[in-house]
């Protein structure tokens, strides 16, 4: 009985470590998939300051901003959202029929590895009429 | 300052439980003067209850029986929640919420242990919870002439005017009243004379508050709790069927009454032509289910049998949970992770405790959570079946409260959010109900050895 306690304690520690590793691996895998989705939309948008820039969102959710790009008659076709540190935290593709295709790391912006110049975002927001002041 | 001894703890605990229920309500109230003191007081009272309960249980000789399997399941769940700090998306929130969960379970297990084998003690504790709920309901009504704007949520285009009393919104207090309805019915039937009239009035106050709030979830919770209590305590099948049928009729009438007030109606707010603010034209939180963008926004029609957009929201939450299915996003992160993008849905959480558990701790968390619930339920139901006649209504009331709470958890995210006004009361009722079965089993095992019959 006495020998079982240290073995059980050691097993619990090993299990706990494995769970933490598994949780972090799962979180990393999810972030990589979302970043892949965001890159596709950013490629479709092209340079952020292109002439298709049509609309904005300012200070929504926890305090992020978005730029929307037109495709044909669809003013909302492509959207990219940024936090105040310039990280891309969400993209939305509304070009198809049905529900939009969303790639998002809103719940954990720190895991986004795609960064945009914040000054550029602010200029573009002003260009489309966002009340940035 | 001398800390209370075990005997004093036993006397204080029922009153503290009642005060705790009121404090949790105030701590999330729309009544601003009550909100800030309530936010602090609720945690102080929870800590006090947990401390005194554990002290009371520890002082019992011989050592009391606690419901072992549910207590272990609760411990494993807390351990998993704490471990999730290693992968959470909110590094402060997860450990903080885990600590509050641990304290709540310590309170529930301590109360179960301290009152083990002592029906009078269980009765006083349950009456303490009921007393708190009665105060919440009564103060809510008293608020009407004092501050109508706080007591009643004004009508909007989607919703009619709804009574919210002391609650944060019209759904929070009805959940508490629905869960404690079986306790009110138990005490009404257990008492006589004027006490019976007053407690019957309290049950009527609960129902009236639920109807005035328009909360279908609260009504369903009250109905389920009433039906379980009735089935468990009816003297005959015929009596049980008759009372259950009456309860269903009352609920149907109440539901019809909820449809009487109408929303404000009228056209949606005008958006300036050519506006480039996408949040005005196509809000992120109302995009899915809106329909084609080249058509005007559809009108949201609500009735007794619509889901208020819950089905779409649950689909969205499930999709998010399946992106991290094994271990989730971290305990306590439900509100941070769930993204409301659904046209007919208005909430920061998916409004389903089980989906919320999946979001927070993945399959691992759901398995442990369901094990905890199943073990509590099994013991509680066994306790009702094996109860001596004098104890059956009490055990049935506590069990009915837990069953009602589990049904409510299908349409509300709350059972893992300790700050919710009903959560601590629910788990305490569950552990008290389970503890009765543990104590009965112990008595059954001890009796042949002692030679008594």
Question: Could you characterize what this model shows?
Answer:
Chain A has 2 helices and 5 strands; from the N terminus they run αβββββα. Chain A is of the alpha+beta class. The relative contact order of chain A is 0.16. The mean pLDDT of chain A is 94. With 453 residues, chain B is mostly helical. Chain B has helices at residues 6-26, 32-59, 68-83, 93-114, 119-146, 148-151, 172-190, 193-213, 216-233, 237-258, 278-281, 310-321, 334-337, 353-385, 392-408, 423-450; strands at residues 152-153, 162-163. In chain B, helix 9 (216-233) runs antiparallel to helix 10 (237-258). Classes of the chains: A alpha+beta (133), B mainly alpha (453).
Which structural traits does this protein have?
A: 133 residues, 5 strands, B: 453 residues, two-stranded antiparallel sheet, 1% strand, disordered C terminus
Give the terminus-to-terminus CA distance of chain B: 47 Å
Number of helices of chain B: 16
Strands of the largest sheet of chain A, in order across it? 1-2-3-4-5
- Helical segment tally of chain A? 2
Main beta sheet strand tally, sense and closure of chain B:
2 strands, antiparallel
Write the layout of secondary structure elements.
The complex is a heterodimer of chains A (133) and B (453).
Chain A: H1 4-45, E1 53-60, E2 64-71, E3 74-82, E4 88-93, E5 101-104, H2 118-127
Antiparallel strand pairs in A: 1-2, 2-3, 3-4, 4-5
Chain B: H1 6-26, H2 32-59, H3 68-83, H4 93-114, H5 119-146, H6 148-151, E1 152-153, E2 162-163, H7 172-190, H8 193-213, H9 216-233, H10 237-258, H11 278-281, H12 310-321, H13 334-337, H14 353-385, H15 392-408, H16 423-450
Helix pairs in contact in B: 1-2, 1-5, 2-4, 3-4, 3-14, 4-16, 5-7, 5-8, 5-16, 7-8, 7-9, 7-15, 8-10, 9-10, 9-15, 12-14, 14-15, 14-16, 15-16
């Amino acid at each position: 009985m006495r020998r079982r306690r240290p073995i059980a304690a050691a097993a619990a520690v090993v299990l706990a470590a494995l769970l933490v590793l598994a949780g972090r691996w799962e979180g990393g895998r999810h972030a990589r998939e979302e970043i892949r989705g965001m890159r596709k939309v950013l490629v479709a948008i092209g340079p952020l300051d292109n002439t298709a820039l049509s609309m904005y969102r300012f200070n929504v959710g926890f305090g992020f901003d978005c730029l929307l790009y037109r495709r044909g008659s669809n003013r909302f076709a492509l959207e990219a959202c940024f936090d105040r540190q310039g990280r891309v935290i969400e993209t939305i593709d509304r070009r198809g029929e049905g529900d939009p295709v969303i790639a998002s790391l809103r719940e954990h912006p720190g895991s986004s590895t795609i960064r945009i110049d914040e000054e550029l975002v602010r200029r573009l927001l002003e260009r489309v009429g966002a009340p940035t002041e | 300052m001398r800390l209370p001894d075990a005997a004093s703890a036993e006397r204080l605990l029922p009153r503290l439980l009642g005060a705790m229920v009121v404090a949790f309500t105030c701590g999330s109230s729309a009544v601003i003067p009550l909100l800030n003191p309530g936010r602090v007081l609720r945690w102080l009272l929870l800590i006090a209850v947990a401390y005194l309960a554990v002290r009371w249980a520890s002082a019992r000789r011989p050592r009391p029986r606690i419901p072992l399997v549910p207590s272990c399941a609760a411990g494993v769940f807390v351990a998993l929640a704490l471990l999730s700090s290693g992968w959470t998306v909110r590094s402060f929130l997860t450990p903080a919420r885990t600590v509050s969960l641990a304290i709540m379970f310590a309170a529930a297990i301590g109360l179960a242990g301290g009152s083990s084998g002592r029906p009078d003690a269980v009765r006083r504790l349950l009456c303490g919870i009921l007393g708190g709920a009665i105060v919440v309901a009564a103060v809510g009504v008293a608020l009407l002439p004092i501050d109508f704007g706080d007591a009643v949520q004004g009508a909007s285009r989607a919703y009619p005017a709804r009574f919210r009393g002391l609650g944060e919104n019209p759904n929070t207090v009805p959940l508490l009243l629905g869960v404690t309805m079986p306790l009110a019915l138990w005490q009404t039937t257990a008492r006589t004379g004027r006490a019976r009239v007053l407690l019957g009035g309290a049950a009527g106050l609960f129902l009236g508050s639920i109807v005035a709030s328009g909360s279908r979830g609260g009504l369903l919770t009250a109905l389920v709790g009433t039906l379980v209590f009735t089935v468990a305590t009816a003297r005959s099948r015929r009596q049980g069927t008759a009372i259950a049928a009456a309860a269903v009729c009352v609920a149907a009438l109440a539901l019809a009454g909820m449809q009487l007030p109408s929303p404000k109606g009228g056209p949606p707010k005008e958006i300036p032509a050519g506006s480039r603010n996408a949040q005005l034209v196509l809000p992120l939180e109302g995009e899915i289910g809106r329909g084609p963008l080249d058509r005007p926004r559809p009108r949201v029609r609500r009735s007794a049998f619509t889901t208020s957009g819950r089905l779409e929201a649950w689909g969205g939450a499930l999709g998010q949970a399946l992106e991290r299915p094994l271990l989730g996003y971290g305990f306590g992160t439900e509100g941070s992770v769930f993204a409301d993008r659904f046209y007919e849905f208005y909430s920061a959480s998916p409004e389903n405790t089980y989906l919320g558990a999946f979001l927070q701790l993945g399959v691992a968390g759901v398995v442990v959570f369901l094990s905890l619930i199943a073990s509590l339920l099994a013991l509680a139901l066994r306790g009702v079946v094996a109860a001596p006649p004098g104890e059956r209504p009490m055990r049935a009331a506590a069990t009915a409260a837990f069953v009602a709470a589990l049904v409510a958890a299908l349409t509300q995210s709350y059972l893992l959010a300790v700050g919710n006004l009903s959560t601590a009361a629910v788990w305490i009722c569950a552990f008290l109900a389970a503890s009765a079965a543990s104590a009965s089993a112990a008595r059954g095992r001890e009796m042949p050895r002692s030679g008594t019959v």
